[in-house]
Amino acid sequence: MNATARACVLDYGSGNVRSVANLLEYLRVEHVVSNSESSIEHATHLVLPGVGAFGAAMDMIRTRIPLPAVEAAVHENRKPFLGICVGMQVLAESGEEFGSHQGLGWIPGTVRRLHDHGLPIPQVGWNEVRTTSAAGLLGEYQTTDFYFVHSFVFEAADKANVVGTTTYGETFASIVRRDNVVGVQFHPEKSQKAGMLLLANFLRL
Amino acid sequence: MKKRRVIPVVLLKNGSLVQSVQFSSYLNLGNPVWAVKRLSEWASDELIYLDITTDNDYDTGREDLGHVKRRTFLEIIADVSKVTFMPITVGGRIRSLDDIRQRLSLGADKISINTVAFDDPAFIARAAGRFGSQCIVVSIDYKDVNGVKRVMVEGGRRDTGMHPVDWARQVEARGAGEILLNSVDRDGMKCGYDIETIAAVCASVKIPVIAQGGVGCWEHFEEALRSTAVDAVAAANVFQHTDQSVYYAKQHLYEAQHNVRAPSLISL
Q: Where are chain A's structural domains?
């Protein structure tokens, strides 16, 4: 593991914060679960876990997380940022879950419901992520299974920002990346070794 | 493509790991923490923890004999979630929304309900509305009563008179996200799954069905994967007696080209 990484896990109240922190603990990565400006400044890497609906997540993110400090860390200091599940979706400019909501807009695109292909929605379970070589997040692996729980998907405006795809009736972006900002639709904290590998590679960015 | 799952079921009674036969006799397999370690190995796709305690006597550890002091089910779940990075379903003794909230906050991803769902079917919708369908599993235990399959509740003791297919349709309509279907007659018997009932339930609902009850060898998993539309195959006892058992089961299914996750592709 990257011995010099210090991760700050941002906590807007999402249920999976504890699992993400447990995984960092397991990987012996120095980390804090905190929204304080000093923790954000002190960290080398930022992680935003999420579950639930887009609008509700954005409301809580705006209320509980000091966004100017996070944006300074991400855009000025170029600290690697990882959004998980809804934490990935809020990177888009807008989302349409329960009405239209504005997102962080760090990666151009929108978030829409999975199309109905006769498969159960939400998608719940292990599915394959195929990465482009540009991703680097899965090391030597081109395809790896990750655990998904979601009804909505990230529709990136610039396909160059899509570095991993998954098929569930349709093919959607399961990993997006723009420079130091990474988003994953699946749950690395529930994806065993594949999740550990992804997180370890993210912490090396 | 989404993968079909292989799920070890861990039965805990008064804080000890047990093996069950037809819901009526129990063999104590000892300390649950060792079992957790064994089953948390990478090949499992998910874990199901069921608390089948019928009283409140958890603290029966014989420390004088060198046993690790047994803990409550919830303490065990909290510990499990610290070392287990896969989805965890927790069931047994859930009666209220607060019971669900508590288990999810300890690190469970889904909860499984049984008796409360039958006695108060509106509870399924309330739970799904509050926590999301994806985390509400309804467990359906059934047994053969004079040649007819009947749903049983209260740990297999109370006959509801209802057929599992009818009950499965109802729980789906009320918002259940998954069904855990378990044959009481086959529990611990190593005779294979009740393919006929599993197929009938799968054909009646759209939500994922997890098959349980009767697995004695890996071919029994194959039979269910081949002959029914189950989304997951689960078993308890068959995984308890050999080291690396889930890995070997998974390897067997993967090599036979079933649509399951490769047992151990990634080295860290």
A: 6-202
Name beta bridge partners: B142. Answer: B151, B183
Among chain B residues, the shortest Cα distance to A151 is held by B134
Pair B81, B108: CB distance under 8 Å: yes
Q: What pLDDT shows up at residue B19?
A: 83
CB of B217 within 8 Å of a chain A CB? The answer is no
pTM of the model: 0.90
Q: Would you give the DSSP letter of residue B115?
A: H
Q: Please report the pLDDT score of residue B152 as a whole number.
A: 98
Residue whose C-alpha is closest to residue A147's, from A178, A168, A170 = A168
What confidence tens digit (pLDDT) does each residue in B129-140 have?
888 888 999 999
Where do we find the tokens 């493509």? B1
- Is CATH 3.20.20.70 what the domain over B5-255 is classified as, yes or no? yes
Question: Can you tell me the ipTM of this complex?
Answer: 0.85
Tell me: the pLDDT tens digits for A13-26?
Answer: 887 898 999 999 99
B221 contacts B233 by C-beta, under 8 angstroms: yes
What secondary structure letter does DSSP report for B38? H
Backbone angles phi, psi at A43, to 5 degrees: -70, 150
Q: CA dist B196 to A23, B25, B192, B201, B202, Å?
A: 41, 26, 11, 9, 10
Count Cβ atoms below 10 Å from residue A14 Cβ, excluding itself: 23
Contacts with B3 from chain A: Cβ below 8 Å: 125-128, 145
Tell me the per-residue pLDDT of A10-56, one tens digit each, with 9 for 90 and over: 999 887 898 999 999 999 999 999 999 999 999 999 999 988 788 88
Concatenate the DSSP letters of all residues of A154-200 into one string: EEESSGGGEEEEEEESEEEEEEEEETTEEEESS-GGGSHHHHHHHHH
Where do we find the tokens 């009938």? B200
Q: Which residue type, as a one-letter code, is found at position A30?
A: E
- CATH fold group of domain A6-202: Rossmann fold (3.40.50)
Q: Where are the domains of chain B?
A: 5-255
Contact B107 A128 (CB under 8 A): no
Going by their DSSP bridges, the two strands B178-183 and B158-159 should be labelled as unpaired
Distance CA A183, CA A132 (A): 15
